[in-house]
Design goal:
Strand content: 35-45%
Number of strands: 9
Shape: globular
Bound molecules: zinc ion
Number of helices: 2
Number of domains: 2
Strand order of the largest sheet: 5-6-7-9-8
Order of helices and strands: HEEEHEEEEEE
Helix content: under 10%
Structural class: mainly beta
Length: 155
């Protein structure tokens, strides 16, 4: 099963995963740093609110659950999540790359999965923002930005 801290250490960069909380199933952001730092955020941007379940819960509990997350992914995504099939050109999404599958990447925004050709930066476990586009007969994402959290957040 998934341990995001372990994956961050293995990949050597910070991961930011948009998914559901294991306790309350609200949309949250999991931040895992390669040095073992970890936090769950309610939202991105100042002042980086820590998710209440993580504040009050057991901080030592690792982000693994026997049934809540799809075991086919190394990044925790909700089990039984649906594919988005209502894409339109120009639609903005903010999602984490949860699998790289040949030329296409699978992204998750915590609500839906997307299979897209990525135009721009973004690696496994990174959260990107972009606009949906057509690339030939396929759906793609023009990356506008990589979502990064400030280094001092976990210090
Ligand atoms: Zn929660």
């Amino acid at each position: 099963m998934v341990d995001l801290r372990q994956l961050a250490a293995e990949l050597g960069y910070s991961l930011l995963v948009r998914t559901n909380c294991w306790e309350c199933s609200c949309l949250v952001y999991l931040l895992a740093k390669p040095d073992g730092g970890f936090v769950i955020l309610d939202d991105l941007g100042p002042d980086w609110p820590v998710h209440p379940c993580y504040q009050h819960g057991n901080r030592n509990r690792s982000y693994r659950s026997l049934h809540a997350y799809d075991p086919n992914y190394r990044v925790p995504i909700p089990a039984n999540i649906k594919w988005n099939n209502t894409l339109r050109v120009g639609q903005r999404i903010c999602a984490t790359i949860v699998k790289v599958d040949g030329r296409k990447s699978i992204l998750c925004d915590g609500k839906y999965l997307y299979r897209l050709l990525i135009r721009g930066p973004g690696r496994l476990g990174e959260c990107i923002e972009g606009g949906i586009m057509r690339i030939g007969s396929q759906w793609g994402l023009q990356v506008i930005g990589l979502i990064e959290c400030p280094d001092e957040l976990l210090q």
